[in-house]
Amino acid sequence: MLTWPQGNGFLVEHLRRQTPAGILPNTLAYAVQETATGVAVLTYDAATHETCRIEARQVLLATPQFVTQRLLQGIPGLFRPARPLHHAPWVVANLTIDGLPQGPGAPLSWDNVIYGSASVGYVNANQQDVALGSQQKVITYYWPLTAEPPKAARQRAYRTSYDQWLTQILADLEKAHVGITARVRHADVWVWGHGMVAPTPGTLWHAGRQLATQPLRQRFFFAHTDLSGMSIFEEGFYQGIRAARQLLDLPA
Fold this sequence. Notes:
Blueprint lengths: L7 H11 L8 E8 L4 E7 L4 E7 L2 E3 L3 H7 L15 E11 L13 E2 L9 E3 L12 E8 L5 H10 L2 H13 L9 E14 L9 H5 L8 E3 L10 H15 L5
């Protein structure tokens, strides 16, 4: 097992240094077109307020399906799912605490789930911290909003205030750690409106999911956790490797 203080940021920085000239920060791709020689990507630079046309032989879109459909609007032959995928909104909270009261059940682990909770629990963000003796910890709490259809859940999520979210989150954590509310020193709460594709019936084992991973005319290639029907880091990693091999014409 390898770890760094920066976490995955260490790996991202290592990859970035290999192609510094090829990364365009503050840039939004708003359309992808097919040309006689390949593809053209239309982009907008938020810093300079300029648009740009980038031409290439091929393009890899590591975007959710609903974004891919918009970027490639009008492209003939593009696979379109019979029914739209559900992207469930999520609430994520990072809580800085000066101690974690031990409640019933298992002691603190890296991944912690509360029995009977609507959340999926929390992870100990200091799990690989080699510092000894420090009581201050950061725990990252995850709550998928799946009790109602995605659109209604998103609308309710954005109507809910920071204080309301924090009250609900702490009430859930109090079930496992009585007294944790008084130990919180800082709390960041974030709502992801389209956080993750929901593995609803018919999205994991069906022919359409496989068709969506196939390149289009060897010009358009696709990678995203949407293509697995399940939004987890490992699936995103797998889909990226798969698409890169397709683009480079390497065996799977």
